[in-house]
Specification:
The complex is a heterodimer of chains A (248) and B (264). Chain A is built from eight helices and no strands. By secondary structure, chain A is mostly helical. With 264 residues, chain B is of the alpha+beta class. Chain B has a four-stranded antiparallel β-sheet. Classes of the chains: A mainly alpha (248), B alpha+beta (264). The interface between A and B is large, with 51 and 54 residues.
């Protein structure tokens, strides 16, 4: 576990360096993308290590710590097409989430054998990918909100992907609940409530897009607000008590 | 009168109402999270006692913990009505205005998703209202359980456990991963079948399904723990409704994502 904790600290530092490089201007974009890839590699190594410790069960409360490498990879992959701000924004969120996972770790729970289900693994994987896409949508929507460029298509595709993956994650959870408990919703786990809240929020955003009654600025504003919804409602419950990042 | 009905129908199916309801649901569930977290024992029995009895007992007598759940039911009911009216209206228009073919299927994808949501909500509601649950059925090796309504018996023969022999976490070394509880299901006609019961792998016996809730021993060296399994018997015919809804939703979502993102 100590190796995993060290790796996530290194990846958090690399997200920070990548963010500084991305903010330094277009000349440093290549360096920023390179740092983003290296940081993402460290982040995936952390995920792999946590998985290897829990396998064949699902690691507990790993959602928040697993999002940064996916976000950094999305940012590095799409920076050329969606601009430098997209790279800076995704790296800033990756840095924030990795930093929170370091300062408030919740990696001390033992895996439990009810997670021995392919649906449990699917729920975690699809959920992480879905949340990363929804956060990327918020980042891509910020320039539209502040009229600094970009179009609605830039962020709405991310909303669609994020919503689709998030929905599949919820369905995987439902199938797990059905096969394990025989009921569609297990009320013993309160995070089901926050998962549903996020789902309804994005259903609202997609219908707002459909009606076209609110302007593009409002829709972009809701997509940006979605970042707060995902961070507070879905990443928050995965965080534990404070632990000094440089302490013993 | 016809004009009033027409106006009501139009307003009930408004997409603006959908947006408002969705954001209200987000707010309600956001408020519900900390309340649920601090009152888990109030909500845990819902799956066993059913929605109606839960609302009349735990729900009504713990309003400080359940107020958001009553609001959730009202909002979900309103959303279901709104979704039905809205999508029925639009689907009729879409079906009238186009030729039958793949393009129409893509155009109908959002409506397929909407009807799937209705199926899922109806399935959940029926499941919590009409399913039967008999929790806390504990069995030791050699003991059997009579299924309700003369549907037969289920006997627990013993374990064939699989261990995490070389797990990387020392505390999990030699822990039981798969208890593999061997069960003999005897049907009323005298036919018997041997099945294996595990977490996430229930055993079906006629209309009833046996779920593993707990078992002992959990380690290779059993110590003082006597072997037993604790099970829950459930009968839930409406599960087929929400499982079909999930399948329909995934189909519609695939069409929508393909049309909306991949094709463009």
């Amino acid at each position: 576990m100590e190796e995993a904790r060290l790796i996530i600290k290194v990846s958090a530092a690399l997200y920070g360096l990548g963010l500084l490089a991305a903010c330094a201007g277009p000349r440093c974009t290549v360096a920023a993308r390179l740092l983003a890839w290296v940081a993402a590699g460290c982040g995936f190594a952390y995920v792999g290590l946590r998985y290897s410790l829990a396998w064949p069960m699902t690691p507990m409360f790993m959602g928040t710590a697993a999002i940064p490498p996916v976000l950094a990879a999305i940012g590095a992959l799409r920076a050329g097409r969606q601009g430098g701000f997209f790279l800076s924004g995704t790296l800033a969120l990756a840095f924030l989430l990795a930093g929170l996972s370091v300062a408030f770790p919740k990696d001390f729970y033992l895996p439990f054998i009810k997670t021995l289900s392919p649906f449990s693994h699917l729920m975690l994987g699809l959920g992480v990918a879905g949340k990363a896409c929804l956060l990327a949508a918020g980042v891509a929507a910020a320039p539209v909100l502040f009229r600094a460029g970009g179009g609605e298509g830039d962020f709405f595709s991310w909303v669609v992907w994020g919503f689709a993956l998030w929905t599949l994650a919820l369905f995987a959870g439902e199938m797990w609940s059905y096969s394990g408990w025989g009921i569609p919703v297990v009320w013993e786990d309160p995070t089901i409530i926050t998962a549903m809240a996020t789902w309804f929020f994005y259903v609202g955003l997609m219908h707002l897009h459909l009606t076209r009654s609110a302007g593009p600025g409002v829709r972009a504003g809701v997509a940006v607000a979605g970042v707060a919804v995902v961070l507070v409602l879905n990443c928050g419950p995965d965080l534990g008590p404070f632990r000094p990042p440089f302490g013993p | 009168m016809k004009a009033v009905v027409s106006t009501l129908w139009r307003r009930a199916g408004s997409v603006h109402l959908t947006v408002v309801l969705c954001f209200l649901l987000t707010l309600d569930l956001g408020i519900g999270y900390p309340v649920l977290k601090s009152h888990l024992p109030t909500f845990a029995p819902m799956g066993d006692v059913g929605l109606c009895r839960w609302l009349l007992t735990f729900g009504l007598y713990n309003l400080e913990a359940t107020f958001w759940f009553f609001a959730l039911l009202l909002l979900l009911g309103a959303l279901a009505a709104n979704t039905f009216v809205c999508t029925t209206d639009r689907m009729a228009k879409a079906a009238r205005g186009g030729r039958i073919g793949p393009s129409m299927l893509f155009r109908l994808a959002p409506h397929i998703i909407h009807y799937a949501v209705l199926m899922i909500l109806a399935g959940y509601f029926l499941s919590y209202m009409f399913s039967a649950s008999l929790p806390g059925r504990a069995l030791r090796p050699g003991e059997s359980l009579a299924l309700p309504e003369g549907a037969g018996t289920v006997a627990f023969v013993g374990f064939s456990p699989e261990y995490a022999a070389a797990h990387r976490l020392p505390v999990l070394r030699n822990a039981v991963l798969y208890p593999n509880a061997r069960m003999v299901v005897a049907r009323p006609g005298g036919k018997t079948e041997t099945r294996v019961l595990n977490f996430n792998r229930p055993v079906r016996a006629g209309n009833w399904t046996l779920y593993l809730r707990d078992f002992s021993p959990r380690q290779r060296k059993r110590g003082m723990n006597p072997p037993f399994i604790e099970t829950t018997l459930r009968r839930d015919p409406s599960s087929a409704v929400y499982l079909a809804g999930v399948a329909l939703f995934v189909f519609g979502l695939g069409l929508y994502v393909f049309d909306r993102v991949v094709k463009r």
